[in-house]
């Protein structure tokens, strides 16, 4: 199921205690893609690669410490314009505000880029999107843009 987010009603981005939210610089891009493939899925790593090829890039990371340790990422305009996601936070770093900070960073930048709504595609954590961004279900949105896509296991 896809979900719709009204960007004009999205709350201010919180600042999580500890982690910083920023865009990766070019020398970090391959590391970020490999980290996403390792901790999440090859498909999400491919979407991250697409977001990192946009200019300006459309992917934020959350990091902690120096040298910085990656905790999570969120992309937009990866598989389709106006789509937000994928988003992922390391298991050990969840429920600490990192996911909300990443999602809201993307949504605020989308609004600044001229979008009024964002679509979260094939949502795996709908309650998180409802809670953080007021997302609502899009009737008839299954199967969406990912229908029939190739998977690594095939
Ligand atoms: C979904 C995900 C990104 C959330 O990251 P997180 O860092 O744990 O989220 P936060 O701590 O910022 O949570 C923000 C709020 O949403 C709530 N929340 C977090 N995950 C939730 C979930 N799965 N369902 C419902 N509420 C959730 C938190 O309790 C918190 O509420 P609060 O503001 O009242 O305290 C993370 O669980 C994840 O990476 N999951 C696996 C990948 C995934 O499913 N991605 C989404 C695909 S569409």
UniProtKB/TrEMBL annotation:
What is an example of a GO molecular function annotated in this UniProt entry? acyltransferase activity
The UniProt keywords, alphabetically, are: Acyltransferase, Transferase
Q: What class of enzyme is it?
A: transferase
Q: What is its EC number?
A: 2.3.1.-
The yes or no answer to whether the keyword Ligase is present is: no
Q: Which residues form the N-acetyltransferase domain?
A: 19-154
Q: What is this protein called?
A: GNAT family N-acetyltransferase
Classification of source organism:
Bacteria, Pseudomonadati, Pseudomonadota, Betaproteobacteria, Burkholderiales
């Amino acid at each position: 199921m896809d979900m719709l987010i009204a960007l004009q009603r999205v709350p201010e981005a919180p600042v999580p205690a500890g982690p910083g939210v920023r865009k990766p610089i070019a020398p970090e891009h391959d590391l970020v893609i490999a980290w996403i493939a390792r901790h999440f899925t090859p498909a999400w790593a491919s979407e991250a690669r697409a977001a990192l090829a946009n200019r300006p890039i459309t992917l934020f990371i959350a990091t902690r410490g120096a040298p910085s340790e990656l905790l999570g990422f969120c992309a937009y305009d990866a598989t389709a314009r106006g789509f937000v996601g994928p988003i992922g936070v390391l298991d050990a770093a969840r429920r600490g505000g990192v996911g909300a900070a990443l999602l809201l960073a993307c949504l605020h930048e989308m609004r600044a880029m001229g979008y009024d709504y964002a679509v979260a595609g094939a949502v795996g954590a709908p309650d998180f999107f409802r809670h953080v961004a007021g997302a609502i279900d899009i009737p008839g949105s299954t199967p969406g843009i990912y229908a029939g896509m190739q998977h690594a296991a095939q």
